[in-house]
Amino acid sequence: MTLRAVVRGVGHYLPERVVPNSEFEKTLDTSNEWIVSRSGIERRHFAAEGQTTSDLAVRASKAALAHAGMEADDLDAIIVATSTADLTFPSAATMVQSALGNTSGFAFDVQAVCAGFVYALANANALIVSGQAKTVLVIGAETFSRILDWTDRGTCVLFGDGAGALILSAEEGTGTNADRGILATDLNSDGRYRDILYVDGGVSTKSTGVLRMEGKEVFRHAVEKLAETADKALSKVGLHHEDIDWVVPHQANIRIIQATAKKLGVSMDKVVVTVQDHGNTSAASIPLALAVGVQNGQIKKGDLVVTEAIGGGLAWGSVVLRW
Ligand code: UT7
Asked: What domains can you pick out in the chain, each with its CATH number?
């Protein structure tokens, strides 16, 4: 018997306020044309004043619970992937737990920046296959608008806020690639590159700080590492690029998404793309894209889905799952 972490439900939430690229033209030396051609981003959502990361996470979680036909107390564990938790502590995950009214499970945050959701999925998988939890709610939620330097045109036009959530439950599989659920994971980080994407403040330095990025360098690493991690995860279970039904990549830049698809040997009509509408929502981008992909009728039960992401750390990784 092989225990598999199988998707039961998915949900998402985007804050009401939509900000088109043209808004930035009013205050910065930038243009809609530059932002679209260099990143593929056309608009993003920003949280309202007072609206926190856990507020977004709760909305996405309720949608996922409804989609799964489950109640909050069916959850054994809640994991929130975020770099923008409401408070230094407690975790955003415990805030979600209390807002949902769950008292029987345990909850914690995972911080691996834009790779956070992939890391959280790998953790949820480990909890399920080791028998420590039967049902896990995995959320990616961010309010990056709180850590942007509004005078830095090289970064503030790229990010957005939002949340996506997935519910995974233990199911018995056959141990083959035909099983539904998570089939393989691959996680990596290399702290030598911590200075090319970081926030220049934090608890221990007594400030919140703002995001700093050497975009070109991050871009170079992304194009090199994303296809590599996806290939590694696929090969762990004897799968190949021809087996992929959907690539659901981290949504940072359409040019990175296209270059990675090309390297993977997958055509763009098998890639879920939301970057034009969401911008880069860091750990929220993959679950948001999964939710949109399901809602649009792209991702269907039994499809082989590959997710991949890279972000600050650098941290990167991928998950192969059968929907
Ligand atoms: O989620 C975590 C992972 N993050 C990423 O994957 C982001 C990776 N990086 C990128 O997506 C791209 O590098 C960017 C979109 C950030 C930038 O695109 P680029 O093609 O690498 O442009 P660049 O940084 O080389 O900048 C080209 C030019 C520069 O001007 P000069 O030096 O050539 O005169 C920039 O100052 O574009 C200028 N520029 C802008 N111009 C208009 C930078 N930002 C802007 C802007 N509007 N918003």
From this structure: 2-173 (3.40.47.10), 181-322 (3.40.47.10)
